[in-house]
UniProtKB/TrEMBL annotation:
NCBIfam families: secG. The chain crosses the membrane at residues 6-24, 56-74. Signal peptide: none annotated. Keywords: Cell membrane, Membrane, Protein transport, Translocation, Transmembrane, Transmembrane helix, Transport. It comes from Flavobacterium omnivorum. This is Protein-export membrane protein SecG. It is a multi-pass membrane protein. Belongs to the SecG family. The keyword Transmembrane helix applies. Involved in protein export. Participates in an early event of protein translocation. InterPro entries: SecG (IPR004692). One of its GO terms (cellular component) is plasma membrane. GO terms for biological process: intracellular protein transmembrane transport; protein secretion; protein transport by the Sec complex.
Length: 109
């Protein structure tokens, strides 16, 4: 398994986690904090909101870092190192030899 494939799997996992964390939040303050009900679970509503906010920023930062690192490790078939155009310009086609034929306008006597 190549390094790029490993980064691709990690990016997919982080994207899924980021989607889940964002979907749990509610911009009006409802979200997960309204379903908990009391302040007994997870240290209260404010700490739940702080946790979701920090986890969103952390996952977004990890996602950006993984994308940048994966671009450095990409050595796919579309890279410029194996360009067929550059290889074809260095080789030239052989020139056909010129044949000396007698002129047809001046017949031999």
């Amino acid at each position: 398994m190549s390094t790029f494939s490993i980064f691709l799997v990690l990016i997919t996992i982080v994207c899924f986690l980021l989607i889940v964390v964002i979907m749990v939040q509610n911009p009006k303050g409802g979200g997960l904090s309204s379903t908990i009900g009391g302040s007994q679970m997870l240290g209260g509503v404010q700490k739940t909101t702080d946790f979701l906010d920090k986890s969103t920023w952390t996952l977004a930062t990890i996602l950006i870092a993984l994308i940048l690192l994966s671009s450095l490790s990409f050595t796919g078939t579309l890279s410029d190192t194996d360009s067929k155009i550059i290889d074809n310009t260095t080789t030239t086609a052989p020139v056909a030899p010129i044949q000396n034929t007698p002129d047809a306008t001046n017949p031999a006597k």
